[in-house]
Amino acid sequence: MDELYTQFDPVFFEKTRLSMMTVLYKEGTVTFNRLKKIIGGTDGAVYTHVNKLLTAGYVAQKKEIAGNNVQTVYWLTESGKELFRKYLEFLENIIAQSKGGSGNGEK
Questions:
Q1: In angstroms, rounded to a whole number, what is the distance separating the alpha carbons of residues 94 and 1?
Q2: CB 59 within 8 Å of CB 81
Q3: Do the beta carbons of residue 8 and residue 21 sit within 8 Å?
Q4: Contact by Cβ (8 Å): 58, 79
Q5: CB 31: neighbour CB atoms within 10 A?
Q6: CATH numeric code, 10-96
Q7: C-alpha distances out from residue 94 to 27, 33, 89, Å
Q8: Nearest CA-CA partner of 49 in 7, 81, 79, 20
Q9: Based on the number of CB atoms within 10 Å of its own CB, is 83 exposed (0-12), middle (13-18) or buried (19 or more)?
Q10: 30 and 24 in contact (C-beta within 8 Å)?
């Protein structure tokens, strides 16, 4: 079972970035300020985590005009969506195993 936990790279499988991926998967396109509000970090912390996801190719961004301001919006790339779906399948398998009693933690 230990190998299952290491199948995801550390860029993705870090709690703040995983939370960001979850928000982006659920909502589609999200502004920096919305992401910051949901995640609850500082500008610098949110930027650092998003930048790691951008560098890994899991997230894309663009700047757009909103009223008199410029805002940055983010969304999952195809590889980001695929990775997140694999993560969901992983969780579903754990749940199915635990309900079936075939997991390591017996009920």
A1: 10
A2: no
A3: no
A4: yes
A5: 14
A6: 1.10.10.10
A7: 25, 34, 9
A8: 20
A9: buried
A10: yes
- b/e sequence 36-60, b meaning 16+ C-beta within 10 Å: beebebeeeebbebbebbbebebbb
Delimit the domains of the chain by residue range.
10-96
Edge-to-edge strands of the sheet including 69-76? 30-31, 69-76, 59-66
Q: What is the pLDDT of residues 6-47, one digit of tens each?
A: 677 788 888 999 999 999 999 999 999 999 999 999 999 999
Instruction: Give the number of other CB atoms < 10 A from CB of residue 15.
Output: 8
DSSP sequence for 37-97: HHHT--HHHHHHHHHHHHHHTSEEEEEEEETTEEEEEEEE-HHHHHHHHHHHHHHHHHHHH
Kindly report whether the global pTM for this prediction surpasses the value 0.85.
no
Looking at residue 27, the DSSP 8-state letter turns out to be H
Both structure tokens of 23: 């928000």
